[in-house]
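Give me the fold.
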Amino acid sequence: MPAPREAAPQAGSISVTSQKNQFGVSLTMAEIDDQEMLKMRLEYLKTEHGDLDRAIDALIESGNYNTLQLQRLKKRKLVLKDQIFATKNSLLPDIIA
């Protein structure tokens, strides 16, 4: 005897778990995972930016550095700053006025 078949879900019967973010915008679980990944990336970028800032300061204080090397480090720091800004903007909800 064949196994009984489960009834196919009816339209509108599937519920998606959602939560609201700090702005009161409802988010699905996939969006929550994306938000968490962005927050983790933001923390990583901030840490790397701070580390680079301290490395640049230490290099300058030592007085023993190559100008080209210092320029490259500063450029990398600016790239990180841009990435931090872009990641922060990705965390903000789109507000249609």
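The first helix runs from residue 29 to 62.
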